[in-house]
Write a structure and sequence with these properties.
The chain is mainly alpha-helical. It has helices spanning about 20-30, 35-45, 45-55, 60-70, 75-95, 110-115; strands at about 100, 105-110. The protein has 6 helices and 2 strands; from the N terminus they run αααααββα. It starts with about 20 loop residues before the first helix and ends with a helix.
Length: about 120
């Protein structure tokens, strides 16, 4: 898969995820591999991380916390790559119409539930 540059993304910064509703965050967390979540949580905005952890099911949240402890000494490049990966996954969810943008806010759609 070709990597998108920040300029090509609709969601340009990790902090932009504060504009995601809970359903959009749920889709994003479920689509993102646990290792990527853990690394991005180590570098991301605390409010966003808290919101994302809040939408995870308890078992996955516990697993991600374990990975965060395991990767606590990870290098900055790995963490930045994970942040970019989360943004690319969010972009993919937009392209798949599982998340839609209205103004500066992002909303999860019910399309995946109906399918």
């Amino acid at each position: 898969m070709e990597q998108l540059s920040v300029d090509e993304l609709t969601v340009k910064r990790f902090q932009d995820l504060t504009y995601f509703d809970n359903l959009a965050l749920h889709y994003l967390c479920n689509e993102t591999p646990p290792k990527t979540l853990a690394l991005s949580f180590l570098a991301g905005d605390e409010k966003v991380v808290g919101s994302m952890l809040g939408v995870l099911d308890p078992k996955r949240r516990e697993f991600v916390h374990k990975l965060m402890a395991e990767f606590s000494e990870s290098d900055e490049a790995s963490r930045k790559a994970a942040l970019h990966g989360v943004l690319c996954i969010a972009e993919n969810l937009l392209l798949r119409n599982l998340i839609e943008k209205k103004g500066k806010f992002f909303f999860g759609t019910q399309k995946s539930v109906e399918a």
